[in-house]
Amino acid sequence: MIFLGKEKMAKDKSQNTGKFTDLQTIEAARNVLEGSQKKNRLSRLMPFLGPAFIASVAYVDPGNFATNIQGGAQFGYLLLWVIMASNLMAMLIQTLSAKLGIATGMNLAEHCRKNFSKPVVIAMWVLMELVAMATDLAEFLGAALGFNLLFGIPLLAGAVLTAISTLLILGLERYGFRPLEAVISSMVGVIALCYLIETAIDKPLWGEVLYHAVIPQFSGSESVLLASGILGATVMPHVIFLHSALTQGRIVVKDKNQLLKLYRYEIADVVIAMGIASLVNAAMLIMAASTFHKSGLSHIASIEEAHRTLEPLLGKAAKWVFSISLLVSGLSSSTVGTSAGQVIMQGFLQRHIPIWLRRLVTMTPAIVVIAMRLDPTRTLVLSQVVLSFGLPFAIVPLVMFTCRKDIMGQLVNRRTTTALTGLIAAFIIALNIYLIYDTLF
Fold first, then answer.
1. What would the CATH number be for the domain defined by 49-440?
2. Up-side HSE of residue 317: CA atoms within 13 Å toward CB?
3. Which of 50, 142, 256, 272 has the smallest count of CB within 10 Å of its CB?
4. pTM of the full predicted structure?
């Protein structure tokens, strides 16, 4: 009894510490918005960093590993510009999602429920649940594959470890938003550090890197297909819904001037987080181009092949760093995917299920794939095709709501922003339709 009492006291203290950290963050943010915070720019920015870092995990998930490795191995640095362009598009889309939550105090799914008819809402919910499962399939497989490559653990056991690890990370939510933001941001940092090391090891040709980062080029229909795959793996529908939920109640202000300042700080959050994600994606392709393509191994098309080939080309360190980055990517993105699923269900249906039950349901397809011994990398790529089906149903409503003054108030989109986002949406949808058609037919 004494032990249980101490355990409860420790738990309560931990929870209070987490909530206190949240209160500190909110208080610091309000001081900045009110102009009473006189510290340097970085100190003023810190309370606002977090939501975009959680969202950015979806941009460095195992699906990106699969498409970026294939693109670099087959075409060298040629498609590097696609990564840069995709992430610029993603920055704009995620900024609009964050703005929707800030301006209205409601997330994208809740706006859909409020503004669309019930049959449309139900249809969108079903589609987004399928998207959430496809997302989780890719991320779950990536983490299981990371356990397998790093420790030699069988894929099925790796899948079980992934489920347990995800639940433990998600358990941080009970202590407030800041601890979870800190852990996810740290995991993004680990992935970035891994690829910084990889880039230093593989010694890319920086002149070609800079050239192909800004000059759009293709080399046949296969390069167009891979470009579509890279884009499809970059802009994710579930994280568009999630980002609006992350900002809707994090820091609440009513004053118009403070609201504009809050939005500017959230833009900085998006630019920094998505900028890091962009560099990580670029580093993935650069690694594949500088090792496999350069060595004439353009046939490398799977994560396992890439891992196996890295050691003779770059040494054991590169192989280990690659495995660690894949594992951390899978665990962090699987955690974020589960959170997105909760947001989608709550928003569309006003229903909430225990996190362990959602984890169990969404992990089932991955368990089936592993049990059937299907090719993990091929399954990852196909999961990106499923995600493509759901993308228009996230981007189009986002543009519709953020261009309405009766919803957004003073943070309503400018006409140029709406036009640009509309063009980006049309471009992404067209490329994804091409990807779906070419993959399935």
1. 1.20.1740.10
2. 10
3. 256
4. 0.86
